[in-house]
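A reminder before we start the practical. When you read a complex entry, don't treat the lines as separate problems. The point of joint prediction is that each chain is placed relative to the others, so the output describes one connected object in space. Small molecules and nucleic acid strands, if listed, are placed in the same frame. In the example below there are two entries. Take a minute to note the order of the lines before looking further.
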Amino acid sequence: MAERIKDEQDRLLESMFESAPVADDGFSKQIVGRIRRRLWVRRITLPAAVLLGSLVAYQPLAALIKGVYQLLLSMPGDLVPSISGSLPSLQLIITGALILFVTLFSLNMLED
Amino acid sequence: MIRAEDNELVARVVSSQDTRAFGELIRRHQSHVRNFLRKLSGDMSAADDLAQDCFMRAWDKLHTFSGSGSFIGWLLKIAYTTFLQSKRKSKRYAEILEQVGHVSEVESRSHSTPADEVSDLDKFLAVLSEEERAIMVMSYACGLSHREISDATAMPVGSVKSVIFRGKEKIRTSFDIKDHQHG
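Here is the predicted structure of the whole assembly.
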């Protein structure tokens, strides 16, 4: 309205359109609450999905690692020199993978 | 305590999803947004629901606020879009109800102010089209400049000016406006 000169009708309309300020009365809190809930749901969804996925994938993954492990052990010694001696135990591999996964995941959560 | 500028609060929200800063932005502007939507829809509770949706959208889109115009102008743009979308939905809903043989309850719900509570402003707004009403409210109730209204409504400044002129003419011809000056 500053960009033009107000006439009498402009001033009259301004006074007609003028209305009392609306009290907040918890309005802002309600919206902030909704946003916080949404953020929380968003934050919890990914970890929950990962946990569920891990639970579902644990058995097939362990079987896969075991299969690969057995395959490596059954290879001729000249093809994979000294592999059988340097391979850690299967349990150690799975535990290591899980620790690595949990650490990376926790770091990611802390960043958020 | 120094009062942070709107742009500063927006930056805090965008950079670190600071819900407190956003809460402060809502506290500052909720009155304007709610008044704007109340005047547009004529229904206080529906307007407040729309205002909530508007602020939720604002949260999602805050990174698109460039800071070149005023924050309230940007918010009213979202409020107006939210209003138009809800209106379109209501219209579709009413059409479906009519198709299945129901009387449109949506139509009867809008502008639900009781007849004895109709103010002069309500009478003025009633003679205006939806677009004119929005622009007149932005201009006279919210104090937005023509440039800001143009941004909010995606209309050229010249069109905004002519809509305001047309709105004033409609009010002038529909009412003896001088009567209101003396109560």
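Discuss with your neighbour: The mean pLDDT of chain A is 79. What might explain this?
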